[in-house]
Amino acid sequence: MFTESTQPLAVVTGASAGIGREFCRQLAGQGYDLLVVARDAAKLDMLARELEGRYNIAVDKFPADLTLDDDVTRLVGLVAGSTRLRMLVNNAGFGTRGTLADASPARQEAMLRLHTLTPMRLTQAALPRLLENRRGAIVNVSSVASFLYSAGNVNYCATKAYLTTFSEGLSAELRGSGVRVQALCPGFTRSEFHDRMEQDVTSLPVWMWMSAEQVVGASLRNLRRGGPVICVPGLRYKLAVLLLRHVPRRFIGPLSRLR
Question: From the candidates 32, 160, 162, 237, which is the catalytic residue?
Answer without folding.
Answer: 160
